[in-house]
Design brief:
TIM Barrel; alpha/beta; 14 strands; 40% helix; 4-stranded parallel β-sheet
């Protein structure tokens, strides 16, 4: 079997198994014993990607498919990727026997859907969650906000189940544009504390430099003073916005999390952060693999000298530049590699070679681009 990566690091088999036909659309649901054996055989053949939805079933039992997959795939849960969906429901008011489906992505419906899917799939997490159909009555930004809150809640549940003492963890979360302003930010902080199941957050960031971020900052300063937050900062603040906030806020940002990698090293921004005592933190230190990151000749040439990988060299470069890095991975072996960068030091010559890779441009978006600003600020209009 060959494998593919979805997004940043969700690895799945190149051929997955769409499970709709086991319960829906092709006549009566198939024999469950036979389908259970089929699913087990798929796992044995190297298939790791299984796709379903809450509504693959019949009008009598609309959740038949998830109820099949839950117990059938439970023995292999740590080896597979489960994908399911939300956003449609049967129109129970329609007189036809075969009920038509209608879109429904209201926040309360999404929460009900995810809780039902988790129960039926007999799992504590969903690997990939799709919106099955766009609901024209619910802005996509509102749907994204609900998904973000579900992810935060999932992190809280995972922390609770991990058994790791709270004081040994450093938890960072953010306030989104839709929650900008003093009152909304206060409510957002309270909600994050509740969902993360903690009495304090180690670092809270303003996610984007738009809308009433001064009101947001006042709420964060207040929460910092009363001990709910141990540190406060910002994300994606370019030098002009960062200077503005540093100059006029009672408490200056302690961290600025910005796109930083070998192709966008933020050298000017880094100097500004140093001047104002703001810690420079990188998001996307691997550039999400863009621009041929992992096959880059310079990175791999330098890596060979130290018996390291291109990724490890790139992280080490940022560390030596005084940048805090937060590489993302769901794979244990890659996490180990990401931490294994403190037993070597790049020479001045190698640092210069990597520094020469800097293009000074984003590989993702620019806050100086009107279209990007309109896209992001439109999100802030939907709480």
């Amino acid at each position: 079997m060959q494998y593919r990566t979805l997004g940043k690091d969700l690895t799945v088999s190149a051929v997955g198994l769409g499970c709709m036909g086991m319960s829906h659309a092709y006549g009566a649901p198939a024999d469950k014993k036979e389908m259970t054996e089929l699913l087990a055989r798929a796992v044995d053949m190297g298939c790791t990607f299984f796709d379903t939805t809450e509504l693959y079933g019949t009008p009598e039992n609309p959740h038949d498919n998830e109820e099949l997959l839950g117990p059938a795939l439970k023995p292999y849960r740590d080896k597979i990727v489960l994908a399911t969906k939300f956003g449609i429901t049967f129109d129970w008011n329609d007189p036809d026997v075969n009920k038509p489906v209608i879109p429904d992505s209201r926040p309360e419906s999404i929460r009900k859907a995810v809780e039902g899917s988790l129960k039926r799939l007999q799992t504590d997490h969903i690997d990939l969650y799709y919106q099955h159909r766009q609901d024209p009555s619910v802005p996509v930004e509102e749907v994204a906000g609900v998904m973000s809150r579900l992810i935060e809640e999932g992190v809280g549940n995972a922390i609770e189940k991990s058994g790791v003492p709270r004081e040994e963890l450093f938890i960072t979360t953010k306030i989104w544009i839709a929650n900008a302003g003093y009152e909304k930010a206060k409510a957002s902080i309270a909600e994050s504390l509740c969902k993360l199941k903690t009495s304090y957050i180690d670092l809270l960031l303003i996610h984007q430099p738009f809308s009433d971020y001064y009101g947001t900052w006042r709420a964060m300063e207040e929460a910092y003073k009363n001990g709910q937050l141990r540190a406060i900062g910002v994300a994606n603040f370019y030098p002009d916005r960062l200077i503005d906030l540093c100059q006029f806020a009672e408490i200056a940002p302690m961290v600025n999390q910005v796109e930083t990698h070998v192709f966008q090293q933020q050298q000017t921004a880094h100097a500004i952060m140093q001047k104002y005592g703001v810690t420079h933190q990188s998001w996307g230190p691997f550039a999400e693999g863009r621009n041929g990151f992992f096959t880059n000749g310079v990175l791999n040439e330098v890596a060979a000298k130290y018996n390291k990988s291109a990724a490890q060299v790139a992280l080490r470069f940022l560390i030596q530049c005084g940048v805090v890095v937060i590489p993302k991975s769901v794979h244990k072996d890659r996490m180990v590699q990401n931490f294994d960068i403190f037993d070597f030091k790049l020479s001045d010559d190698d640092m210069a070679k990597i520094r020469a890779l800097d293009t000074g441009r984003s590989l993702f978006f620019s806050h100086y681009d009107p279209a990007t600003v309109e896209f992001l600020t439109n999100m802030g209009k939907h709480a």
